[in-house]
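Human: You know discrete backbone vocabularies at least as well as I do. Show me how you would write down a chain together with its backbone fold. No explanation is needed for now; the record alone will do.

Assistant:
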Amino acid sequence: MDAMAAFMTQDDFLRALREHPEWRQAVRAEILGEEILSLPELVKENSKQIAALTELVKENSKQIAALTERMDLVDAQIAANSKQIAALTERMDLVDAQIAANSKQIAALTERMDLVDAQIAANSKQIAANSKQIAANSKQIAALTERTKVVENDIGELKGSNLESALVANPRRFLKRHRGIRSLNFDERYVISERLPDDERLEVDQLDAVLYADDPDSGEPLYIAVEASWTPSRHDLERARRRAEILATITRTPVVALVAYNKAAIDQRLVATARKMGVAMARKDEGVTVPAEPIVAP
């Protein structure tokens, strides 16, 4: 008979389990089933998972604390930014007010500029009209200037001719100390200039007068090559000197280069130039004002 069949009471059964420990696992498996038997292992595994979750919660708590601290800093920064934004808002209100004021000023200036543009346009029209009038006046002035030059040239020629005529008619009015002074006539001048080359002959023929006299100091005969000019210039000095040198060369006689004039006062710089060039100057009824030595041909 099987040992289990001898169990009559519960006590018998429990005593048998105590006497046979190997039966306990079989009884547990039979009564509890595999799922109940595996609970300890599941509890042990869950304990491990709970411990891991606890560590994770701790780590999260640290992260949350750090985030909380950072959020406090963020809140402080936001508070500071809010103050700055409030200050900037206030400044922007001032800027808006200034822009509004500037806009009014710009509008006023624009209105004034419109008036200025209108005035400029009116002035431009007036300037255009004035320019036309100026152009017309300029033409008239140019014509008058040209006519004035012609008149001045004519007057200059008349004065020069009168001065030349006075010199030829009475050379003593210019040269008071020269003895036997006279003006060579056309034939006498022709005899002299005929022996010259064409260019030099033209120079001598263009002399306003050729005088012949005795040197007041040495008594020796000499020629005087005269350029007559109502208002003398450096050009007159140069012509008198150049033509006197030609005359001295062809006549082999000393020649004084002379500029005769009638102006009351002449530039002292011209006087200095005349002395430097060796050209004498004489004024009508006054006599020699700038003396010069005769030119002697080499």
